């Protein structure tokens, strides 16, 4: 099996995921998964597509990620892994990943700050007199 790649995005995070047959190693920006994500919940998010499709230990995954915070990065990696698994074998993985909602990109972004007010929606206190 040759190397397959996919792109995952969430908020300001962009993850490039490269997947190849292997022993189940996940490397993120040259570091191991346990070193990069200290929290169990974030490691769980990254592993969700593999657990759902019972593909744990079948693929080596290399990820390059830039931007965003740790939660957005974890969710971007999840989307990238799900898309890469679909590239590997559409018939086997696509239906289960789609049913779980892992192939849908979350479109929510931070709304920009507007001039003349302290935030995107917040206004300065109104004074009648």
Keywords:
single chain, 129 residues, alpha+beta, Ribosomal Protein S5, domain 2, five-stranded mixed beta sheet, 4 helices, 36% helix, elongated
Architecture overview:
With 129 residues, this protein is of the alpha+beta class. The chain has a single domain, classed as Ribosomal Protein S5, domain 2. Helix content is 36%, strand content 22%. It has four helices and five strands. The protein has a five-stranded mixed sheet with strand order 1-2-5-3-4. The N and C termini lie far apart (73 Å).
**What's the level 1 CATH class?**
Alpha Beta
Would you list the SSEs in sequence order as H and E?
EEEEHHEHH
Query: How many DSSP H or I helices?
Result: 4
Number of strands: 5
Cα separation of the termini: 73 Å
Q: pLDDT average, as an integer?
A: 94
Q: Provide the spatial order of strands within the biggest beta sheet.
A: 1-2-5-3-4
Helix content class? 25-40%
> Structural class per helix/strand content?
alpha+beta
Short note summarizing the structure:
The protein has about 130 residues and is an alpha+beta fold.
């Amino acid at each position: 099996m040759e190397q397959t790649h996919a792109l995952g995005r969430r908020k300001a995070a962009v993850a490039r995921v490269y997947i190849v047959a292997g022993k189940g190693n996940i490397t993120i920006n040259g570091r191991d998964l346990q070193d990069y994500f200290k929290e169990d919940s974030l490691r769980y998010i990254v592993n969700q597509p593999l657990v759902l499709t019972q593909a744990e230990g079948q693929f080596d995954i290399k990820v390059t990620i830039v931007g965003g915070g740790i939660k957005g990065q974890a969710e971007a990696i999840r989307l990238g892994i799900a898309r890469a698994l679909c590239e590997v074998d559409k018939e086997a993985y696509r239906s289960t990943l789609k049913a779980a909602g892992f192939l849908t990109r979350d479109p929510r972004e931070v709304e920009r700050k507007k001039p003349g007010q302290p935030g995107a929606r917040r206004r300065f206190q109104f004074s009648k007199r």
